[in-house]
């Protein structure tokens, strides 16, 4: 199965890139490829000018201090047999920091994410709420002073009020520590709130990319428009009476030829089956992979 095909993008320092798409489109695989938790079959990942594929295991260990991952499930990503203090300090111990210094730094990070280290440090993950566990995961990711944080749906398992608290915390930490985020989500409201630029994926391909404002104001790809149309309206008079998109995504084992969205697209043309449409520039900060915008389609 080809999970991610020809996905290419650049993240600038102190930028937040939002990656959005429905379940199974390759977002989590992309996150693991960035940090080389999965070995890519082709292509390259360049971090601070250095190709991670050619880095030795020793060099990769050093580079991983500068890039960390926050997982989707705040409970499953914590060791149930380790206290919160030990979980946050563990990365420092792996990189050779003395135990006392590691525990001190872990306590400072817990305090920074809103958890009293004296109260929560001796506890175990099952004694914390979902929002508190996700704060622990954020502290654990930040304890090595990284430059890049890859967040794989960090608020999808939390209720709305806790989501807002965690998102505001991430915004504050980004400004304070000058962090760069790759923020993965399927929630368009979250992406619109936190991201500077957005990458829309469908079945392993990038179908549209641009600034968060450009995509929210004028989405161009039929899939992106369907995603925004699927978001519930806060106005009770603007109810969704018909589904904006129908059918299920094709099997990634045997995807359709050409544009992978053509089997669900209302604007499909014969040429959509012939070749994958390239990313067509609409503006300096907006590109779309759709033949509707190449100037040769009716």
Give the oligomeric state.
single chain
Q: How many runs of DSSP E, i.e. beta strands? A: 10
Percentage of helical residues?
25-40%
Radius of gyration based on Cα positions: 21 Å
Strand order of the largest sheet: 4-5-6-1-7-8-10-9
Would you mind describing this structure in some detail?
The chain is of the alpha/beta class. Helix content is 33%, strand content 15%. The protein is built from 10 helices and 10 strands. The strands form 2 sheets. It has an 8-stranded mixed β-sheet, with helices on both faces. A two-stranded antiparallel sheet has the order 2-3. Helix 7 links the parallel strand 5 (148-152) and strand 6 (180-185). Helix 3 packs across helix 4 (99-112), helix 3 (84-94) packs parallel to helix 6 and helix 4 crosses helix 6 (130-142). The longest helix is centred in the middle third of the chain and has 18 residues, at 160-177. The mean pLDDT is 89.
């Amino acid at each position: 199965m080809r999970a991610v095909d020809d996905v290419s993008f650049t993240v600038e320092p102190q930028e937040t890139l939002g990656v959005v798409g429905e379940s199974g489109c390759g977002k989590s695989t992309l996150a693991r490829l960035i940090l080389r938790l999965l070995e890519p079959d082709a292509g390259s990942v360049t971090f601070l000018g250095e190709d991670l594929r050619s880095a030795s295991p020793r060099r990769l260990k050093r580079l991983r201090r500068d890039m960390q991952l926050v997982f989707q499930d705040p409970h499953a990503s914590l060791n149930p047999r380790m206290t919160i203090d030990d979980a946050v300090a563990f990365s420092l111990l792996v990189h050779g920091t003395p135990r006392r210094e590691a525990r001190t730094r872990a306590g400072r990070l817990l305090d920074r994410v809103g958890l009293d280290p004296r109260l929560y440090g001796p506890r175990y993950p099952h004694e914390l709420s979902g929002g508190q566990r996700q704060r622990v995961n954020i502290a654990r990711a930040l304890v090595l002073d990284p430059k890049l944080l890859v967040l794989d749906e960090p608020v999808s398992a939390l209720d709305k009020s806790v989501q807002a608290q965690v998102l505001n915390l991430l915004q504050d930490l980004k400004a304070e520590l000058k962090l760069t985020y790759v923020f993965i989500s399927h929630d368009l409201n979250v992406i619109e709130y936190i991201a500077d630029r957005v990458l829309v994926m469908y079945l392993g391909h990038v179908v549209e990319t641009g600034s968060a404002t450009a995509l929210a104001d004028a989405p161009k790809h039929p899939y992106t428009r369907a995603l925004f149309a699927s978001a519930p309206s806060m106005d009770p008079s603007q109810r969704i009476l018909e589904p904006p998109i129908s059918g299920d995504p094709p099997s990634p084992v045997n995807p359709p030829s050409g544009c992978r969205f053509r089997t669900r697209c209302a604007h499909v043309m014969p040429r959509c089956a012939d070749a994958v449409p390239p990313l067509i520039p609409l503006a300096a900060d907006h590109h779309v992979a759709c033949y509707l915008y190449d100037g040769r389609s009716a």
